[in-house]
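Morning, I've got a small favour to ask if you have a moment. You're getting the sequence in one-letter code plus the fold written as tokens. Thanks so much in advance, here it is:

===
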Amino acid sequence: MPFRLKPHKPYSFFIEHTERSGSRLLADQLHEQLVNEIHRPIVLVCIGSDRSTGDSLGPLVGTFLEERHIRNLHVYGTLTKPVHALNLVETLHEIQTRFHQPLIIAIDACLGRLSSVGYVFFSEGPLAPGAGVQKELPTVGAYNIKAVVNVSGFMEMMILQNTRLHLVYELARFITDGFADFDTRIGRLHHEEAAITRLRQSRDESKS
């Protein structure tokens, strides 16, 4: 009997940044989706510019993560060294040269419906940075994080420039807390695997 394979439906998760324990729930989703990938270099590309309030989400996340001294995630894009339209191609080339088979997660601000403002979306698939403001840039990542910072509409560059810093800051903190929690879980898994490996080696040595 003929049958059809169901097409793969890309994973997607969204949560409001004010939700109680929301950053932990984001970490849960990151862990669930990426736990089998933790032996690859996980690279966060935080896209944006500090010259525009709404577009500063990515560099804020990168800066906050650097301040947390995370150990198991690699961060590109901070307030000091932002990743934006002028250096995105160069940055992606550097990542592919530096790391073997990196798993890239793109992080960026976006505009959306009024009902979506303040929400964070974690999705499978690449991010198309600049699409909302008519910029042609390469797609980025196997997964992406998007935070809705304002309402889309006419003159979207102006909307980003006039977005409230408070909301962008809170969204960046929320995303940072989620990734910091995930980073801790990765470290714990690596520690457990190392302990198991040492135990096996000790048993092998005792047998020989």
About this structure: The mean pLDDT is 91.
